[in-house]
């Protein structure tokens, strides 16, 4: 009897002490994820991603309009895919350096599943009149797809290919095939609801590994060509499973891992203080005397940090 009561009061306490935001997050939002798989014979590997919350967070932080949301979202997914291909503590920066009205799109992803990013022009909102389809490619324009891989050694590795269409998915596929010499099929997209808010975002990467037989490659190629459009698959109730069955058909495969993905910035007041400390003393004095402080907004997440006269005074003193 006593034991029963103890158990009951204990579980009551546990219920009370579960942080409310956590409950809210799990039930309302769900967590983005990437599932890594390999065909049973080891000749093909595929990643499938749910990036809905990642892109939704990016849209909320940057207040992007339709074309800007889709362009930034696709680039965030592209860098999640590239980071998933790396090991250890590696950072991948993707710079879509187009010449059209969206401006540059910059994203940074790491091997721990976090990604941050921004689009220079958050206000592009162009749709086809007939279908309402959100247009991206023409507003990225021509330019370069630049990938910077930082293994933490202080010598980041730069690799660049021209933009093929500005639709990001095709540009990433071309980059992987050209610079990494790995035949790759990519599908990624962001779907918006009638209010232009993110409805679903995700994608897949399929790669041919060394040792794949010619007839196997033909079989996979045929299936990829015949698979429904990525937008249709993303509309499925469980798009992760829909993508996997579209990629593998009836072929046996193994799930290697399931990892969480999220939009998260690593900025802090301390980081910006370091950036301020690299400014010339005269600039800092001007900020102190004329502006009576400084305010810095992080490009990647729009967080704003305030530095008062005392903060600036300390930086100036350190320089004397
Ligand atoms: Zn930030």
TrEMBL record:
Family as reported in the entry's similarity comment: Belongs to the HSP33 family.
Family matches, as Pfam families: HSP33 (PF01430)
Gene that produces this protein: hslO
Single GO MF descriptor: protein folding chaperone
Keyword Cytoplasm attributed: yes
Principal location listed in the UniProt entry: cytoplasm
Cysteines engaged in disulfide bonds, as pairs: 265-267, 298-301
The entry's keywords: Chaperone, Cytoplasm, Disulfide bond, Membrane, Redox-active center, Transmembrane, Transmembrane helix, Zinc
Function: Redox regulated molecular chaperone. Protects both thermally unfolding and oxidatively damaged proteins from irreversible aggregation. Plays an important role in the bacterial defense system toward oxidative stress.
Membrane spanning residue stretches: 12-28
Post-translational modification: Under oxidizing conditions two disulfide bonds are formed involving the reactive cysteines. Under reducing conditions zinc is bound to the reactive cysteines and the protein is inactive.
GO BP field: protein refolding
GO cellular-component term (any): cytoplasm
Protein name, per record: 33 kDa chaperonin
Superkingdom of origin: Bacteria
Subcellular location: Cytoplasm
């Amino acid at each position: 009897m006593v034991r029963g009561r103890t158990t009951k009061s204990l579980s009551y306490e546990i219920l009370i002490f579960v942080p409310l935001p956590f409950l809210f997050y799990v039930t309302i939002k769900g967590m983005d994820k990437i599932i890594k798989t390999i065909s049973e014979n080891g000749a093909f590997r595929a990643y499938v991603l749910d990036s809905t919350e990642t892109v939704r967070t990016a849209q909320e932080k940057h207040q992007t309009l339709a074309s800007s949301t889709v362009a930034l979202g696709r680039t965030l997914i592209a860098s999640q895919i590239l980071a998933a291909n790396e090991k250890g503590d590696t950072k991948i920066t993707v710079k879509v350096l187009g010449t059209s009205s969206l401006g540059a799109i910059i994203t940074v992803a790491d091997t721990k599943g976090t990604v941050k990013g921004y689009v220079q022009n958050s206000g592009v909102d162009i749709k086809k009149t007939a279908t309402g389809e959100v247009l991206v490619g023409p507003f990225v324009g021509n330019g370069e797809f630049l990938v910077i891989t930082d293994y933490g050694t202080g010598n980041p590795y730069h690799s660049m290919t021209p933009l093929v269409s500005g639709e990001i998915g095709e540009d990433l596929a071309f980059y992987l095939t050209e610079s990494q010499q790995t035949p790759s099929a990519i599908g990624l997209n962001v779907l918006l609801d009638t209010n232009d808010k993110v409805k679903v975002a995700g994608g897949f990467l399929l790669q041919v590994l060394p040792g794949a037989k010619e007839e196997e490659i033909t079989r996979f190629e045929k299936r990829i060509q015949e698979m429904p459009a990525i937008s249709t698959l993303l509309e499925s109730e469980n798009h992760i499973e829909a993508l996997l069955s579209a990629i593998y058909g009836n072929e046996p495969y193994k799930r290697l891992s399931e990892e969480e993905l999220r939009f998260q910035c690593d900025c802090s007041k301390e980081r910006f203080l370091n950036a301020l400390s690299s400014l010339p003393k005269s600039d800092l004095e001007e900020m102190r005397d004329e502006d009576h402080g400084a305010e810095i907004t992080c490009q990647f997440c729009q967080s704003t940090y305030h530095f008062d006269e005392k903060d600036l005074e300390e930086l100036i003193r350190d320089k004397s």
